[in-house]
Amino acid sequence: MGELAVAGTVGDELVAIGLGSCIGLALVDRAANVAGLAHVVLPDSQGQQVPRAKFADTAVPELIACVLAAGALRRRLEAVLIGGARMFSVGASLDVGARNAEAVREALGRERIRIHVEEVGGNRGRTARVIIGTEITSQLAGGPRTSLLSFGPQRPGSTLRTVGALR
Asked: Which among 76, 82, 72 is positioned nearest to 36, based on CA atoms?
């Protein structure tokens, strides 16, 4: 939790296991076969500087810098969000998963990074897996893997997919 990793070798895997209310944020440049994955725990750093990947407001610029340093081009970056579940029955203001998802979206918006797809919400944890050169997948706890983005040829007009009411 609160970590990030970047890879640029086809076949390398980046994995975030046990994403409950946390967000697994993948940034990918499919043409360069470069991707990064951050395990975002909380929406706002409130001035804390480390670990930068722990907070949405600091994780997004940090992950961008890391994937660019690994050879990605900013104009080709696409984001994939996974996680953000509501793990406990609490009031809406305490729904950390929803707040994390919104904070990551806002930070990506400030950076002008396009969200390719997201699979967030529900009340079960997930695992995010980035397989460089192949795909990005999401897997609900106890469920099958779902492919969210392929590293194959980009399809024009791909759309945002939000999944919220998974049980």
From this structure: 72
pTM over cut 0.85: yes
* Domain definitions of the chain by residue range: 4-150
Strand partners, 114: 78
Q: What is the pLDDT along the chain (167 residues), one digit of tens a residue?
A: 889 999 999 999 999 998 999 999 999 999 999 999 999 999 999 888 778 889 999 999 999 999 999 999 999 999 999 999 988 776 656 789 999 999 999 999 999 999 999 999 998 999 999 999 999 999 998 899 999 999 865 444 443 333 343 32
Please state which CATH class domain 4-150 belongs to: alpha beta
Enzyme catalytic residues: 22
